Amino acid sequence: MAEQKGIPTGSQIEVVSPATRERLGEVAVDSPAEVKAAVARARQASRIWAATPLSTRAKVLRLAGDSIFDHREELVELLSRENGKPRMEALTELAYVGDMLAFYGRRGKRFLDPHRITPHMMLNKRVTIHYQPRGVIGFITPWNFPLILTVGEAIPALVAGNAVVIKPSEWTPLIARRGVELLRESLAAHGVPVDIIQVVNGYGETGAALVDEVDMISFTGSTATGRRVAMRAAERLIPCSLELGGKDPMIVLRDADLERAANAAVWGAFTNSGQVCISVERVYVDATVADRFTDLVVARTRELRQGFDGDEADSDRRVDVGAMTWPRQIETVTAHVDDAREKGAAILTGGRLNPALPGNFYEPTVLAGVDHSMRIMTEETFGPVLPIMPVQDEAEALRLANDSRYALNASVWTANRANGERLAANVAAGITCVNDVIVGFAVTDAPSGGLKESGIGKRHGAEGIRRFCNQQVIITDRFGLKRELIWYPYSAGFEKGLARVLSFLYSNRLSRKIRALFG
Ligand code: NDP
Q1: What was the pLDDT predicted at 2?
Q2: Domain coordinates in residue numbering, the chain
Q3: Counting C-beta atoms within 10 Å of the first and last residue's C-beta, which end of the chain has fewer, N or C?
């Protein structure tokens, strides 16, 4: 694929398939002025949308979602061609969109309905918490899940009553454009202002212009760019949520089911060609079972079928591993593998571009003899590489797993679930699975997001929709006295009385005396 960086504003972005090398289409780059105009239209539309009852919003969106599934085959093929992923993985992106519509369509009201709290002290006040839409939410999204992270991400923001403006990756703009087009057609048919969901296209300048205009920015991508987005959001004092990189560890203890663990490692490392922020990026396996585990992993990896099956709807031919989407990511993968090899690692399988295929197909790769002096164990590789490192015991595995600037996801493998959960609680990660991988993203009821340099904020669950809302607290006086005790005029008598009450309520000396009295 030709490098596209640096094409000036006003030009076109040409999209070429990383799998087949065919030209798929083009989109126009939006200038900052065009981004500003799109956000202004979104803000206008959001007023009508926000005033629509949540139950109606959810219903209209679910109907709009039907049109996505009516065009399932078209979308699966486009996703597969544009991103390079196998059909099966393209289909899971549609499944996620369906799940978001179903989950927030059903639960959104429960998460966002005003709710009362009982104050622990000010019992003479009635307190209610409300959730108001923020206005226009901007999404800057990457190329690895170009439908999930655009249309899928937008759904909770829309259910909450916001308008959204999405800047998809310049490497995969077509699927976002088509998905949004389908939603807009359906929304128009239901009398909803279509500008509640829009796409703007371009590079860093377009993304930066979006951050300059919206009421909240949601960014998924690299830690370096995420930091720049957060700095601009801080200048504007708008909320931002950041889903950044990961270097997710897998800890395999000696009592683990090695077959399940090996199958999980292979899928967890190579699905979507490893271009998953929560993929398995490094394995720490108990030395007593390391050889057996590694043999199983290598055998499974060699069975994987690599290629393109995007246009194979009518045949039974399917592939397991597709192409890598971003050519520069192959450079990162190659640099990490070369660095490991130079420092003494062994390549057990893979370690090169697939010579039998025309596109960006990097072979699923397994490395042994690795350690933390190597980039492959410490930097995000974001490609189909699985380094395996034997460890002496649980403590060493835990220390190495936590020796990272990232803390997104992790997994622990053991026959003893209670021990697994105990160990999992000590792993620095937003989500740690016991005897499973990646599944955290599918448990959409639970908050998902990173610690350390992996990000700020959560998607999914109640937080996943409330983050798109301003929380508003309403406090109502219950008794209507002419004046409250702490209002003017201040008096010495009230001050003394208050001091006595305070020492009764809060003095440790008094509570020590009471404890002594009652033994
Ligand atoms: P980046 O984070 O570099 O960029 C994401 C998007 O933001 C791009 O369109 C970029 O434009 C744009 N952008 C750049 N600067 C700004 C700015 N100041 N304000 C707003 N937007 C801006 O991600 P990439 O897609 O280029 O991938 C790079 C790395 O990110 C990968 O190597 C991988 O490690 C990681 N990554 C992580 C993902 C995750 O899910 N956590 C997903 C994908 C990638 P431009 O390209 O012109 O710079």
Answers
A1: 40
A2: 30-244+461-471, 248-444, 488-519
A3: C
Atom of ligand 1 nearest to the CA of 169: 9
CA neighbor of 428 nearest in space, from 457, 448, 399: 399
Assess whether the previous peptide bond of 355 is cis (omega < 30° from 0): no
Report residue 396 CA to chain centroid gap.
Answer: 29
State pLDDT tens for residues 242-260.
Answer: 999 999 999 999 999 999 9
CATH number among 2.60.40.10, 3.30.750.24, 3.40.630.30, 3.40.605.10, domain 30-244+461-471: 3.40.605.10
Asked whether the beta carbons of 223 and 245 are under 8 A apart, the reply is: yes
DSSP sequence for 362-407: BPPEEEES--TTSHHHHS---SSEEEEEEESSHHHHHHHHT-SSEE
CA distances from 22 to 84, 172, 321 (A): 11, 14, 19
What CATH class does 248-444 carry?
alpha beta
161-185 average pLDDT score: 98
Instruction: Give catalytic status of residue 469 as yes or no.
Output: no
Let me know if 14 is a catalytic residue. no
Using CA positions, which residue lies closest to atom 16 of ligand 1? 204
